Each structure stands twice: as C-alpha cells, then as structure tokens.
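The authors assume throughout that readers already know how a fold can be written as discrete tokens. In essence, backbone conformation is discretised, so a fold becomes a row of integers matching the chain in length. A single example would do more here than another paragraph of explanation. For illustration, here is how one protein appears when written out as sequence plus structure tokens:

…
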Amino acid sequence: MRKCRIIFFAANPKGTVPLALDEESREIEQKIRAAEHRLEFITKWAVRPDDLLQVLNEYRPQIVHFSGHGSPTDEIMLLDASGNPKPVSKAAMKQLFRALKDNIRVVVLNTCFSRPQAEAITEVIDCAVGMNKAIGDQAAIVFAASFYRALGFGRSVHEAFDQGRTAVMLEGVPGEGTPELLCRTGVDPDHIFLVGQNANTAGQIPASTRLITNPTPSPHPVLPRVFVSYAWGDDKSDEGFQREMVVEHLCEAVQDTGWQVIRDKKVLRYGDLISTFLKALGRADLVIVILSAKYLRSPYCMTELHAIYNNACQEKQQFLDRIVPLVLDDARIGTWRDRAEHAAHWQAEFQAMEGSYQHLGEQDFRLYKVMKDWHNHVGDILAYIDDVLRPRGFETIVADDFAVLRQILQRTRPND
C-alpha cells in the first residue's frame, strides 16, 4: 500500500516574531513515528512562493502543511529572495491547489487567521484545516502533532481533527476552538482515511450536500470586525494597570454585542507585521479609538489613526463614520491650543528624524516613511475627533457596564 506523504512548509520571515516551527516539526515527527502506520514526513524551511510549485511537483504529497504567520487580511506570509515577508493571497493559494492538486487530500494551515484560505482551498481540495483567529505556539504544536498521530493510527480525517482539538483541551492551553475543519462539496471527512485498511476511500456523499465540519460551531460564523486602537502597555502605574483592565472588559462588552474584536496587542504578539495589521485596520468595519496622553505620543498609535483617516480619503464624515472615539481624561484635544501642541510635537519629531536620516536603521527608516505621510495631518485628525459627541472621560465610558458604547455599537452594526 502506498505510503501517505506529508509536506511541511515552514516560513518565519525577517521582522516577524520567531515561532517554534522546529519544535512543531519535531513533535509531529515524534508522534507519527510512534503511530501504527508510518507517514512519510518531509520538511521544507524558509519557503518562498516558487518553492511551493517545485516541491508539490517533485513529491506529489497527500497532505500539505503550512506553518508560520498569517494575517487578518487573508494572507499567508512566505519569504522573498532577501528573507523578508512575502504575502500570498487567498486567491493565489486556491489557484496553487487547483493547478497542482494531484494526490492532495488534506491541507493544514497552521497559521493565524487562515480560515478564509482554508475555505477557498476546499473548492478544489477535499479537506482543509484553518484557524478562525490568532493561535499561540503551544496550541498550534499540540493540535498538529495529535492530528497526525491519529491519522497514523488509521483514524479518519474527522476523527483526527477531533483528537487534535481534544489534545489542546487536555493540555489546558487556550485555543481548542480555533482550528476549523472545512470540506469540499460532496466530501465526508468521516470516510477519508489516508493509511490503514480503509485508505484511499473516496469519501463521497450526495453532491447536493455542503458539509463544513466544526464540532463546536461559533454562534456568529461571520461577524463584522471592530478594531481596538489603544496604547497597550499603559500598566506601569496602578492607575495605568486599572485602565488597561477596563479596556479588556470593554473588549468583552463589544464581543457581547455581536462584533469580532481584533486588537494590535493580540494580533502583533503572534508575529504579524505592523504593515499587515495597518492594512487590515484600514479596511475594518469599525474602529474603537481610545485616546489617552500616551496614545497621542505613540508613533505606532498615531500611525494606526492615520490609516483610518487615510482610508476614508481624508473626508471628515467618512472618517467619523469609521470610528468610535473614546477620549480619556488625560488626552487633551478640546481646544485649538491643545491640538496645536500635539501637531507641533509631531512636526518636531519628524524634522529631527529627517535631520538624522542617514543614521536611521531599517526599522526607524520605516517609521520615518510612515510619519512622512501623517505628521502634517495631526491637527485635522484631532479636530475631527473632538467634533464628535461621544463618551468622554474614564467614568463616563465605563458607566453602567459601557452602556453608551453598547448602544452605539448596536446602532452601527451592519445588517446580517
């Protein structure tokens, strides 16, 4: 009987948070070695887009596994020739597997926010596993290793998927609900076996049936996105710590109103580039901006704010339709003098960077380029925000379990 072959594609580009990809590979290999049936496990590292074509042509695997970084904009991050991030779109992934599906039965996207890619891939491949949000290293490793072990013991794809999620729960790490199994029209993953006496079963069910398997489905499969723009890390004092805890509760309140909350604190710590996050931020349905003194002096926060402003074509009403600004007590933007002070600060910061242009490192140079776009717009942006009647001050924002914010979000939520 033909051996089942797995290709493990790994990519951790420069400028992204290092992931434990070698540990994931080692854990998978250990688990399949201890299984009843041997799976052939082939690893490919520092993968570039053209490597996908070369390797799939060369090995013609039954399973393709991607491990690395994903993005909220439905991309997978591979490497370019210099080792920098090279985004690969959902459409490109679908076309890849349309052109080279050969023997492939399962694709596993062990990357953050990869559910949309998995859904697209199942238009041409029997089964795909994707992540419906960010996933941590430990959960990703435990899930993948247990999934392949179960396949190696002759379990079906569906059974293996269930075992992977169960293993995450047994380890007591968050993320058991993050992986989702999706299937092509007419395919039953309970009848797909890749090794053992039932191997090569077609797994067909009536073609009129669309089967998407998720043992614990989300009550809101497709939710509108709200991004929370806030100066995270403002917890060095007792007051700052309390304020950050309140923002955490605010995010929970937003989720209760039927929104998917995405925060730079959560997204970026899993390795997504700030440029990738900003692209997603600019395309959000809505953004909650929590202005504080620290926010107004943070180049990254101000870059986020400008992304929203720029996406609205710098038109006041379009800009204000995109954001819910919550102004904390220490964020002084209420008078022209206050706003002019902030504008002058960023003008001076940019001029200082321009004066040291030749001495800037790579990361500082990227910051210089984005500041060049927005340092002259600070006054306009803050004046626009100040013109909106929204909750102002810490006590007003948190009153009655964020009652005012809940009302705003209920009115703003797009129709399903």
Summary: The chain has two domains: 4-191, 225-412. The chain has 16 helices and 13 strands.
